[in-house]
Write a structure and sequence with these properties.
By secondary structure, this protein is an alpha/beta fold. It is built from twelve helices and seven strands. Helices cover 37% and strands 13% of the residues. α11 runs antiparallel to α12.
């Protein structure tokens, strides 16, 4: 997994269906972009150049943002994976499904009719899915959009031949470190900070906006304590699941969180496994 040989590692930065916000984070941080360009050979960067420089070249690392929303996306993703030694999902769409997956409970033909007035457009369109549904993913940097420092830390570790550090603390922890007032306790808001992975410096709660869980779950979500907090504030488990669904369907909310809560509909349960334990 080391990329410490004398030749510059070859990387590509790709986008599937999404807003390209994670690529814009890189472009908007010129010093980071220049540092990446100095340490690597960037052979593809869809938002920065109009054409892929070497479309069939083998890559040491591919960074892919966006969710998989069509058969065309699947083909592109599988091609990238086949020629990349390692693949990193960047952004919540790529890691968890993101905003496009919010409406996965609505048939795709109905969605096309609602948006375009024609169910026959985009015949290869499909419901939004994370990259991991189709190919192996070696590393993941979540966020909507990503935090540039988290990306650079991960890239630095990979270039040095080590594993990127996993964030094992919650947004709630960072709120406390910033001495924020708890929005759940003081204002009765449904805040997903207790079960959401930190790394964002509690940006939303710091501006009096409850955490929506865009970064996905902390490794040990503390279901029992979180459920107790919500229950004490008259929140139902459905309230929390509905909030989480904005960003992390289907990979977390549908596959993990909803079944966990459905198995314990009236009380909190004890000693549940981490939602990511089977991914380690």
């Amino acid at each position: 997994m080391s990329m410490t040989n004398s030749a510059k590692p070859k990387i590509g930065i790709f986008s599937l269906t999404g807003c390209a916000g994670d690529q814009l984070v890189i472009l908007n941080n010129e010093n980071v972009l220049l540092a990446i360009a100095e340490k690597t050979d960037i052979l593809s960067f869809a938002t920065a150049v109009s054409a892929e420089l070497a479309p069939d070249a083998a890559l040491d690392l591919a960074l892919v943002e966006g969710s998989v929303c069509s058969l065309h996306d699947v083909e592109i993703l599988k091609n990238i994976r086949a020629r990349s030694a390692m693949l990193m999902a960047i952004g919540t769409c790529a890691v968890w499904g993101g905003i496009p997956a919010m409406v996965n409970n609505i048939p795709i033909e109905q969605l096309k009719t609602m948006v375009y007035g024609d169910s026959d457009v985009f015949p290869d369109a499909s419901l939004a899915q994370p990259l991991s549904r189709f190919v192996p993913v070696d590393f993941a940097v979540p966020g909507c959009p990503i935090e540039i420092t988290e990306l650079t830390d991960a890239l630095g570790a990979i270039l040095a031949g080590t594993e990127p550090k996993r964030i094992d603390y919650s947004v709630c922890s960072q709120c406390r470190m910033r001495e924020n007032i708890c929005l759940a306790q003081s204002k009765g808001m449904v805040c997903c900070g207790p079960i959401t992975a930190g790394g964002c410096n509690a940006r939303c709660p710091s501006y009096n906006q409850p955490c929506q869980g865009c970064r996905g779950p902390v490794d040990d979500p503390g279901y029992d304590a979180a459920a107790g907090l919500f229950e004490d504030r008259s929140f139902t488990k459905k309230d929390v699941i509905d909030a989480i669904h904005r960003f992390t369907t289907p990979a977390w909310a549908e596959d993990k969180l909803t079944p966990e809560f459905a198995a314990d509909p009236t009380r909190r349960g004890l000693r549940r496994k981490s939602v990511l334990e089977d991914k380690s």
